[in-house]
Amino acid sequence: MINLTLKDGSVKQVAKGTTLEELARAISQGLARNAVAGKVNGELKDLSFPLQEDAQVEILTLDSEEGLEIMRHSTSHLLAQAVKNLFPGTLLGIGPAIANGFYYDFDSEHVFTPEDLEKIEQEMKRLAKEDYQFTCRTVSREEALNYFQEKGEKYKVELVNDLPEEARISMYTQGNFTDLCAGPHVPSTKMIKAFKLQSVAGAYWRGNEKNKMLQRIYGLAFAKAADLEDYLFKLEEAKRRDHRKLGLELDLFSLHDEGPGFPFFHPKGMVLRNILEDFWRKEHQKRGYVEIKTPIILHRSLWEQSGHWDHYKENMYFTKIDDQDYCVKPMNCPGGMIMYKTKLRSYRDLPIRCGELGLVHRHELSGALHGLLRVRNFTQDDAHIFMLPSQIKEEIIGVIDLVDYFYKVFGFEYHVELSTRPENSMGSDEAWEMATNALEDALKAKGMDYKINPGDGAFYGPKIDFHLKDCLGRTWQCGTIQLDFQMPEKFDLTYIGEDGEKHRPVMIHRVVYGSIERFIALLTEHYAGAFPTWLAPVQVRILPITDKQNEYAKQVRDLLSEQDIRVEIDDRREKINYKIREAQTEKVPFALVIGDKEVQEQTVAVRRYGEQKTETMPFGDFVALIKDEILSKKIRQI
RNA sequence: GCCGAUGUGGCUCAGGGGUAGAGCAGCUCACUCGUAAUGAGCAGGUCGUCGGUUCGAAUCCGACCAUCGGCUCCA
Q: Does at least one atom of strand B sit less than 7 Å from the CB of A608?
């Protein structure tokens, strides 16, 4: 007999060799019915796994994320089986579970169409009902190679060959379909109930653009139909938050064929930009930053010196002036270098925190452009901090705190990544290690959770990245802190130390918003276009009921305007319902309805965005209310 | 850049080898109105661009451009 410690802490004694499925049945029929897999000492196992010794055991159902993930993975096998049945000769790539679903990559002469997806989905449903068991078989490397070679599955052969020496190689079979897979899987295809094929997309084999592009079929899978419906509904809802749609509706910005990736900001979008910039300047001044502005076009020699010419050329735009090569800046740092060198610096001057709202241009691949989230010109809220080596940690922490402060003001949740040395980079291993450690130390000192993003650093240094989510949950890098030992070297930056000798400063590149454009996009999606009052392009719209109240309305407007409140009057000869509807559609935080009664009593009838009720109050009270809301940057949940 | 899809008035979309339609928005007129759309009328499009097929192309074909979803890349 062996002792199994269950999830609730209780211990169950069973015969050696009892499978997880038998264990589940011994616990309860319900559990046995819903079990998809198990976890033995933290390792995921099939239900058919026989227990040989004392262990911590957990039976997984679709109620857990892990259970769902296993089922999603199994669904990808089901997809592959259906595709193989309908399109014989299709070769298999990989097919993992992903958030909310799964995908499978295929190599096929046939190009999958949306109509094919429907057929495949039907076939999947048919196969699921067949109640095929997922059976696992451990095989030798030779056997696996022979099997896949014989079938011409060259991608699988490649995968097998790349498996480490000691790897246990297993194959899973359901019905007429067998795939290389580490598992585990649900016991039977009938556990797969609520799924939907979503789209086909090209995807390079192993994510490398030098490899062949395969066809990736994406699908959704949930525990039950209602969950799938819920998710599809949420997707539709999320699309209403899309900044591209809202940007047009709210008249914030536009994009045109004449300038793909070069956004046009409209008056209302400019209000947002300017508020973000004003807030930025104020907070940076408080923290000892100065601000500069450097040119957008600079001579080729500067970019050769900085290393951009060698390491960043594919992303840069060029021009000729008087027969000389010039570059449109993709980054602000070289300009900052020139500024630093305009005079002799003393250790007493450091750190120098030098900010710049700099417009940079980068040639992004046409297929990568995406609203304001990925553009070809954008304004970085950049700063370069020049400092003594002894100031590194404190300065990094200062920036981490600053970013955290900013994101909290907007109500953003974020996650942090540490990006390490990329392939095409410059500098010595020691310098990279030093810089990476310094960043990691600062993160640890702050007790922050972070994930490592190997090889994703800038070519001159590692970085801490701050990521925010868009309406569909895709994450975008915004803030970043990059520690750089290379530029000071390349530009021979120096300061005079206490000892009277020249020394090399260290520098940080950092942004908080990241790019104003991207940040505006994320703000728009975050608030679903209903900006908090302090950010709203129009804060108050006054709605006189008839033109008899126009005069009082104008008085109200002028008084608000004097208080720097962004206010408009809608004095069109429309019904009040119509005006209210428009104010709501345009997501103006406050609509002030003014009729005879309000004129009489010198009050305003306040209707807030998203609320049905109105509150009539003395005008002075309203001013106090809105001013407080603006000053405190209040975020209201709607 | 690559794979797939899409491209019809400012917006949303219908239509489809015989030469273009709706709703909203806009403009004009009437209505002076109390918390999410008053009514009537008018105007607006070389159907993404360029080629080809055809007696005839917005419709079929090709190339290109842009957009969308991915891949790759990145603030």
A: no
Range of the domain at A39: 2-61
- Per-residue model confidence as pLDDT tens digits over A474-483: 899 999 999 9
Q: What single-letter amino acid sits at A363?
A: H
Of A479, A497, A526, at which residue does a domain stop?
Answer: A526
Contacts 24+ apart (CB under 8 A), A316-323: A316/A361, A316/A362, A316/A363, A317/A361, A317/A363, A321/A297
Q: Averaged over A593-612, what is the pLDDT?
A: 95
CB within 7 A of strand B (chain A, 246-265): 248, 255, 257, 260-261
A477 and A396 part of one domain = yes
The candidate with the shortest Cα–Cα distance to A540, out of A527, A553, A526, is: A553
ipTM comes to 0.94
Are residues A507 and A410 part of one domain?
yes
**What is the residue-wise DSSP string for A612-632?**
S-EEEEEHHHHHHHHHHHHHT
Judge whether residue A425 has pLDDT over 90: no
A532 domain-assigned: no
Judge whether residue A74 contacts strand B, using its CB and a 7 Å cut-off: no
Of the candidate ranges A250-254, A321-325, A422-426, the one whose mean pLDDT is the lowest: A422-426
User: CATH number, domain at A108?
Assistant: 3.30.980.10
Provide the positions of strand B that have an atom within 7 A of a protein CB.
1-5, 11-12, 30-38, 65-75
* Predicted confidence band of residue A348 (pLDDT cuts 50, 70, 90): very high
A210 plus A74 within the same structural domain? yes
A471 is catalytic: no
pLDDT for A91-111, tens place per residue?
Answer: 999 999 998 999 999 999 888
Shared domain check, A555 and A502: no
Which of these, A388, A462, A392, lies nearest to A432 by C-alpha position?
A: A462
Catalytic entry in A268, A353, A463, A607: A463
Binned at pLDDT 50, 70 and 90, residue A518 comes out as very high
User: Which pLDDT tens digit goes with each residue over A152-210?
Assistant: 999 999 999 888 888 888 999 999 999 999 889 999 899 999 999 998 999 999 988 88
How many domains is chain A built from?
4
> A463: closest CA among A517, A519, A526, A403?
A403
Closest CA to A442 of A375, A501, A396, A386: A396
Helix spans in A224-295 (H): 225-240, 243-249, 267-286
Give domain status of residue A517, yes or no: yes
Residues A378 and A410 grouped into a single domain:
yes
The answer to whether A463 is a known catalytic residue is yes
pLDDT digits (tens, 9 = 90+) for A282-341: 999 999 999 999 999 999 999 999 999 999 999 999 999 999 999 999 999 999 999 999
Per annotation, catalytic residue among A244, A509, A557, A607: A509
For A25, phi then psi, to 5°, come to -65, -35
Residues 296-355/A with CB < 7 A to strand B: none
Residue A204 contacts strand B, CB under 7 A: yes
